[in-house]
Amino acid sequence: MRKYLLAATAALALATAADAQEVRISMGSYNLNNLPFMVAEGLDLYAKTGLDVTVENFASGGSKTLQALVAGSTDIAVGFYDHTIQMQSQNKDVVAIVDLARNSGLVLAGGPESSFDPAKPETIKGAKIGITAPGSSSDFFVRYYLKRHDIPEDSVSLIGVGSGSTAVAALQQGKVDLLVNYDPAATFLEEKGVGKVLIDGRGDEGAKAIYGGIYPTSVLYTRADFIEDNPETVQKVVDATVEALDWIQHHSAKEIVAALPEDFISGDKETYTRAVENARPIFSPDGRFDETDVRTPLAVLKSFNEKVAGADIDLSKTYTNAFVDKAHVAVNN
After folding, report:
1. What is the CATH number of the domain that holds 111?
2. For 52-70, how does the pLDDT look when each residue is reduced to its tens digit (9 = 90+)?
């Protein structure tokens, strides 16, 4: 039987609330790319490592979370890896410390009145496209799609609609013609007959078709100075997150949903559970970053982001496997 030993487990198990190290963690939404973090919260894994975590959900996409991190109003962000690349192009050191989703869970869905046909990319012109928020990875998805097919960006309208039920409602109410979003929204809209997934990036083949490679998305990232000043806190956060990733690999979708705090669950549990099952391919099994895969977000960003295209990006500074490697102390009984 294999199990993972968290750093100083025996000592930390005796930690009292008064001794717990405080850490602020913010997230942009409850989309399923962030599920491993939500599982770690639901199983009290952060508390068990001796942390007192304050969680803030901005519910408006990853760009707000990134702003909070850079401003110092949060310590660690649950956001997308490509934000670390953006920050390096602006001479800001933001480092991903554990990978949650090894692939994009994004899908592009169309409503009943949508005339977009993926086989004819030019039919996207004139569409009102819902994204989680400006500057988010759903925003990047659309811009990269347009770029690859030589379609002017101003030929579509991008509208921030958030994620989950609010995003589905925007499509259902006709506020947008197309929706780029994640599970659970992707599963909800098909289950409820609101729309149909037209481009699916949840699996490896879909991601390669969209981006040309595997695209690591949701991660925990923080500022380089926070890592330097708080290495023990960072290690505890990573330890708990890695344990959650391993737990997900060995439990059913139903068990995963049962472990989540109620406010993390969108819609009815039955549909949400199917969404978790549909999203399974995207979760990292171990939290490690692959040096080949991280090149895909860089290529995507360089295609339309002038600052990134003009910067000398050192990808080795945008992530670290050091804390994940320490978390993976495997023993055989």
Report:
1. 3.40.190.10
2. 999 887 555 567 788 889 9
